[in-house]
């Protein structure tokens, strides 16, 4: 009986370990319409892509929500497999294994019409008070251009600053910015904002896999790439992603 009990315990342990191997955990944040703790699928576009890509390969996905700065720190540790969606930077390449891109992001300036914001080059930007969000790639991009941005902890704060005319302009994704206008302001208030026709930058968005367990992360990276390609080939990807965000165009 002891032998049978021992064998059953080993079998249960083996099954438990196998289940853990087929479960992927990500630390993410609130960034609708791409990631959101709400149940609304229209606010979870990036999540849907990642979850469906892994599920197509037999994996389960677990998502935990934190402030973005904390998500990035947790993703570098051994409690999570990674975080998404992020643009690539030199520091992130040092700390993380970068996935294939799964959507693009066009960064444009939002401004209040009364502020008369226009720009053609970097020198133009230096004349204005430009808002920025902590740990966002656009923030680092501005700093590298020699622009000293007014940094806040959340994008919502920057849009409120725009409405109160405390900053001249704020760069964010076109779709993300329009989403926030609809969320934070009524139609009359939102009509007071304008969007620059010229983009500050355009880049691809990725999963950042932890390097703590490099062998596992390399495997998960390959799994995600296969799953993503399967979504694209089946046409399901195109049904989820906004046309301006698609990588298959």
Automatic annotation (TrEMBL):
Residues 1-18 form the signal peptide. The keyword Signal applies. SUPFAM superfamilies: Periplasmic binding protein-like II (SSF53850). Keywords: Signal. PROSITE patterns: PROKAR_LIPOPROTEIN (PS51257). PANTHER family: PERIPLASMIC SUBSTRATE BINDING PROTEIN FAMILY 3 (PTHR38834), SOLUTE-BINDING PROTEIN FAMILY 3_N-TERMINAL DOMAIN-CONTAINING PROTEIN (PTHR38834:SF3). This is Transporter substrate-binding domain-containing protein. It comes from Vibrio aestuarianus. The lineage of its organism: Bacteria, Pseudomonadati, Pseudomonadota, Gammaproteobacteria, Vibrionales.
